[in-house]
Amino acid sequence: MSTCLNTDPTRKANILVTLRYLLALVCLAATLATSTGVASAQAAPEFRLGFKALAEQIPIVVGQPLENEHWGANGDSLQQTSNGLMVWRKADNWTAFTDGARTWVNGPLGMQTRGNDERFPWEKDSQAVAAAARPPIRVIPDPTTPTSQQLHTPVVKAMDEESKGPGVMVTAYMRELDAKWATVWGWRPKKPVTVYLYFDGHRMAEGIASVSGLTMTDARKNEIATTIAGMKVRDRNTGGWAVLMNLNKWYGTDKWAIRTKHLLTHEYTHVMQSDAAGGLGPTWFQEGMAELAAFVEVPEATPYLDRSRYVAGSLDRGDLPSLRSLQTGWQEMVKSGGERGQLAYGMSYLAVKYLSDNVGGMPLLQVLERTGRGEQFESALQSVTGYTVDRLDTEYRQIIPASATEP
């Protein structure tokens, strides 16, 4: 028995040292594992609190977070995004986002947008910055102060008895959309905008001919009545813009409100394109931008995802047209109907979505504004975004399979 028990003090000491060493290794391994887990968790930055609230209001403009929020040397809180910089300013406690040219401020009057060379009266540095020896800063007048440029609030009109009930929802959403576009795009209509509501496709077709002054054959009116739910045209009655909608297109289905909001967002984006930039630029670019805006505002509009699947199918078959071919062949593809028409819209949406994901939403409108001032579209596209049509065509194709399942 005594031969099995070792009472040597030196050996006991060595055993204790060994056990302590092993215990230290276990603790070190656990610490490293925890540190690795923390680093892994921190690898995906996210918006939080005020920055999250702002990003949810203008997702196209802000883009994705590239880092987590952190303190700047001056006490401001900062966060880089794929499209610019989030800022919480200690001096006057406002949260904002800037893309380098414009700033969206979530201040005491709610969401407002201004140029980076402008200040709102309530901003603490508005007068100081304007008086300093820096590039001139324009202080934006108080919104209650009359201005020389009249801006217009869209008007919704029910053109038949049946559209009055459903028109209540459309009117409320139009007000919401108008306010949202003022903050997201920094745009309000410079010309009158009227939304005409019908509960019959044929009455809408007659309305389009009457409001626009266009001469239409009976065959064209019948085509509009049976295939089109809404359209933006010039309004000869007001000198502004008109959106005409057939509310009976999907009425009675569970998707009616969703699809109607999607359609109105799409067409109101066309109003903005025409009002701000003269409606110039390739149709595929304008339609893609309108679809992108509609999906961002109404993500529940899932039936329209079929258009992306048409693009994926065409790519798989090896017969996907180029974006350049859309610049001259848009009307032919759309008028042919069926899969080719869906393909044209799907390509436009995915290409513009890819562009927006990489450069931001505001540059889309800036491209059209420069085109409206007389610059060639491709020159404006490259100057503002750094992309050519051919580069965009090559790169957006790489994300088609993944994009085909997303709005």
Write the layout of secondary structure elements.
Elements: H1 9-42, H2 49-57, H3 59-62, E1 70-71, E2 77-80, E3 85-89, E4 94-98, E5 102-107, E6 110-115, E7 118-119, H4 126-131, E8 138-139, E9 155-158, H5 164-184, E10 193-198, H6 201-212, H7 218-227, E11 230-235, E12 240-246, H8 256-277, H9 283-297, H10 306-317, H11 323-335, H12 338-359, H13 362-372, H14 377-385, H15 389-397, H16 400-403
Parallel strand pairs: 7-8, 9-10, 10-12
Antiparallel strand pairs: 1-2, 2-3, 3-4, 4-5, 5-6, 11-12
Helix pairs in contact: 5-8, 6-7, 8-9, 9-12, 10-12, 11-12, 12-15, 13-14
**Portion in helices:** 40-55%
Number of helices: 16
Number of strands: 12
Low-confidence stretches: 1-6, 127-136, 142-148, 403-407
Q: List the domain count as a whole number.
A: 4
Q: What is the SS-derived class?
A: alpha/beta
Largest sheet: 6 strands, antiparallel
- The arrangement of helices and strands along the chain is HHHEEEEEEEHEEHEHHEEHHHHHHHHH
End-to-end C-alpha gap: 79 Å
Strand content: 5-15%
Q: Kindly report the average pLDDT value.
A: 82
Quick structural summary:
The chain has 16 helices and 12 strands.
Structure write-up:
The longest helix is centred in the N-terminal third of the chain and has 34 residues, at 9-42. Helix 9 (283-297) packs across helix 12 and helix 12 (338-359) crosses helix 15 (389-397). The chain is 52% helix and 14% strand. The strands form three sheets. Strands 1-2-3-4-5-6 form a six-stranded antiparallel sheet, with helices on one face. A four-stranded mixed sheet has the order 9-10-12-11, with helices on both faces. Strands 7-8 form a two-stranded parallel sheet. The protein contains 16 helices and twelve strands. The protein is of the alpha/beta class and 407 residues long. It folds into four domains: 11-43; 49-139, no CATH class; 149-267, no CATH class; 280-407, no CATH class.
